[in-house]
Specification:
Helix content: 40-55%
Mean pLDDT: 83
Bound molecules: zinc ion
Number of strands: 7
Distance between the termini: 36 Å
Strand content: 5-15%
Length: about 280
């Protein structure tokens, strides 16, 4: 399983999916219904309001389909494109806005004495469910941003001219390299995962294992390399560096560009990513 530790919070996404309204009309059925109602409204045989209601329902189903693929689906977070991540958050936001509107309308009915207070409960529950989906989508998009930022920093580091000094990080360089014996084997990784867990009582926070859509897009081959989302100067980061050095495993460390900001600080384990050779 990839992204084991930092993605742990996303496990709930599947549970949210399981709660989605059973028996909801299928998209095709709704499309047919919309068509039928449009004709009726045009001839004045049905009220416009009924059509608006149905159109909203159709839009909501479309958004649900987007979330099914991007949030609840089997896609690993690094397989999402930034566009898909934006779509995912926007769809979750629209669904939440619709639920908020429904709560407001239900409240108006209660205040007008046309419905009992208890009739609000399902609307409130539905809104809460959408709020959780929206939070999960936002977290997922944030994680993706972090992964893409990590990939961008690595590409930038490898593209730089050797003699161009890196922006310093306080007294320390912003990136450092340990060449070791130049080899990173599966057995090294297994050993590191177990030792990290034994030492810190939690899984090692992997942000990208092997190839990611971002490394590929940037023209880098990240196969056989692993990025660990730890600040290299934290207790965990220092331990990991010593451990890798004892195994003579090569690594690069990246400190945050701004001191105190955690953004994209990480340790890349393995040799540098080679440039993907293009047939040109
Ligand atoms: Zn890396």
């Amino acid at each position: 399983m990839r992204l084991t530790a930092i993605a742990a919070g996303l496990v709930c996404a599947a549970a949210l999916c399981a709660q989605s309204a059973p028996g909801a009309a299928s998209e095709q059925e709704l499309a047919r219904e919309v068509e039928r109602l449009q004709e009726l409204v045009a001839t004045g045989a049905a009220p416009r309001l009924a059509l608006d209601h149905l159109l909203k329902k159709r839009d909501d189903l479309k958004d649900e389909a987007i979330l099914r693929e991007t949030l609840y689906g089997k896609l690993e977070v690094e397989e999402l494109t930034p566009e898909q991540a934006d779509e995912m958050v926007a769809a979750a936001e629209r669904r939440l806005a619709r639920r908020r509107e429904a709560v407001e309308q239900a409240k108006e009915k209660v205040e007008a004495g046309a419905a009992s207070r208890v009739s609000l409960t399902p609307f409130l529950e539905d809104m809460d469910r959408m709020k959780r989906a929206f939070d999960a989508a936002t977290t997922r998009a944030q994680l993706l941003k972090e992964i893409s930022e990590i990939a961008r920093r690595e590409a930038e580091y490898e593209q730089r001219e050797e003699d161009v000094p890196l922006v310093p990080y306080g007294p320390l360089p912003v990136a450092e390299k340990f060449s070791g014996d130049g080899v990173f084997l599966t057995s090294h990784w297994r050993d590191t995962v177990l030792a990290f867990e034994a030492r810190f009582g939690r899984g090692i926070p992997v942000s990208a294992k092997g190839e990611t859509a971002f490394h590929k897009a940037l023209g880098y081959d990240h196969r056989g390399r692993i990025d660990v989302a730890v600040d290299p100067d934290s207790a965990e980061g220092q331990w990991l560096r010593k451990h890798l050095e004892s195994l003579r495993v090569p690594y690069f460390l990246f400190r945050a560009p701004v001191r105190g900001k955690a953004s994209a600080a990480h340790i890349h384990i393995g040799p540098p990513s080679g440039r993907i050779r293009r047939a040109d």
